[in-house]
Specification:
Strand order of the largest sheet: 5-4-1-2-8
Largest sheet: 5 strands, mixed
Distance between the termini: 35 Å
Structural class: alpha+beta
CATH class of the largest domain: Mainly Alpha
Number of helices: 6
Shape: elongated
Strand content: 15-25%
CATH architecture of the largest domain: Up-down Bundle
Number of domains: 2
Helix content: 40-55%
CATH superfamily of the largest domain: Butyryl-CoA Dehydrogenase, subunit A, domain 3
Low-confidence stretches: none
Order of helices and strands: EEEEEHEEEHEEHHHH
Number of strands: 10
Oligomer: single chain
């Protein structure tokens, strides 16, 4: 996106994708280039209403994701945030977003395991609950252990968030752990439900979709590990 000066106003152009819950937002923080420099702009509801919004189709259908067309949107120069702190602000926003995404995925992972265990205790084969069979219960325990490990990373990250390099390391470890943990739990849930697990009627697919979406937010596990290598090694 781009911003151009016109007297006391800034005229915006360009597109923003994967913007969540825009219609109900009171404010939106938008990045753009102004005279070749990266800037941040704080848009209020009036500015957002003058933009063109289009609902996006994303893997997680429970998410209200929008494409924002900013062409012709005018805002006051007062909407421009302090340029000297843009990079610092973006770095902190990335870490805060990663921490919140990790928290959401840990919660989704626990919910997924509860959903799966409930099914394993109800469904019976050969006169006994299918959860009694080792192939299912051991895998479920493995999923539970992964979620608990991710939760421990999450609590540690929340405790030291904002404390420089130590805080960044903890956040990236939490995000790197939470994504694969939820993905594994959701994938096993689909498999354990059999053919029904692949249908829209089964909630297991909702957890898998949330895992795919969450992994992509603020960097997946591979991205986080690359950043961790730079910080630790």
């Amino acid at each position: 996106s781009r911003a151009d000066r016109e007297q006391d106003e800034l005229i915006l152009s360009g597109t923003k994708c994967l913007a969540l819950d825009v219609p109900g937002a009171r404010w939106a923080l938008v990045s753009a280039t102004l005279e070749g420099e990266l800037v941040l702009l704080l848009l209020d509801q009036a500015a957002l209403k003058s933009a063109s919004l289009r609902r996006e189709v994303v893997i997680d259908e429970t998410r209200r994701s929008f494409r924002i067309e900013l062409d012709g949107v005018r805002v006051s120069s007062d909407a421009l945030l302090e340029t000297s702190r843009v990079h610092e602000a973006l770095a902190q926003l990335e870490l805060a977003g990663a921490l919140l995404a990790a928290a959401e995925m840990c919660g989704a992972g626990q919910s997924c395991i509860d959903y799966t265990v409930d099914y394993l205790n109800q469904r019976k084969q050969f006169g006994r609950p299918i959860g009694a069979y080792q192939a299912l219960k051991h895998t479920t325990v493995h999923a539970h252990v992964q979620i608990e490990q991710a939760r421990s990373h999450l609590y540690a990250a929340a405790h030291v968030f904002g404390q420089g390099v130590e805080g960044e390391i903890a956040v990236r470890m939490a995000k790197a752990a939470a994504g694969p943990a939820l993905a594994f739990a959701a994938d096993r849930s689909i498999q354990f439900h059999g053919g029904y697990g692949f249908t829209y009627e089964c909630d297991a697919q909702l957890y898998r979709r949330r895992a795919i979406w969450g992994e992509a937010q603020f960097g997946d596990a591979m991205y986080q590990r690359r950043r961790l290598a730079d910080l630790i090694l």
